[in-house]
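Homework help board

Subject: predicted structure for assignment chain

Our instructor gave us this sequence and asked us to write out the predicted structure in token form, then describe one feature. I got the tokens but I'm not sure how to describe them. Can anyone check?
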Amino acid sequence: MENIKALLAATAAFSLLSVASASADPLKNIVLVHGAWVDGSGWKPVYDILKKDGFHVTTVQEPETSFADDVAATKRILDLQDGPTLLVGHSYGGSIVTQAGEHPNVVGLVYVAAHAPDVGEDEGELGKKMPSVLAKTPGAIEKTPDGFTYLRPSELPKLFAPDLPREQAEFESRSQVLTAASVFSTPLTEAAWRTKPSWGIVAGNDQIINPDLERWYYARAKSHTTEIKGASHSVYESHPKEVAAVIEDAARNAEKSTPLHD
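My token output:
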């Protein structure tokens, strides 16, 4: 009888230890969201690092036909996750994750050289408060007759990706995803950074979004902020190790952190 009691006690203790160990493990699901004029392939350097380190990583391919369509595409991927998920957005993708981040699977957000509007705000108007080099470059953004935008191919390597190899930047300039102009002026109806912890990366030499605007966004959201000095808007491609390190830190701490908002 005593042996049975000892065995039961040992089994219970092992079960408690297993539960505690599991709860201490970092979340494994990471969803990456790209920005305007590009697609999810730019995330591959970061994806490769995260995958090698044991994370389950999925990249959203937004259609860039409307803000609602892009949020829906992101939520569709979030629905497929099997548990707690870290949602990561680059550039315009920051607006998407801010809106889609209210999804119940999302436990934290990472902004990579990204916009982070509040409810009722849109990134186009916020960008006017702290104009970027792009905003001050006449004719850099072209618009089709049916309302889709793209960066002039001669400007993308200089503004979007000056720290990438020239051939790679030129390829990206010629493989752009034309983006509906309306996505930049659609006000948000949710702001997930108000209810979930966030991390932010400032690209120190960003010419697409003013780095001061990125700093302002992250300060307002009370994000854990990292600045990568000299990095362009393509920071996720040019500095994948540093970006992946921030994402992995968020994965380790998202479920233990709480946002500091009223």
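Reply (TA_rk): Your tokens look well-formed. For the description, you could write something like this. Residues 3-23 have pLDDT under 50 and may be disordered. That's the kind of observation they're looking for.
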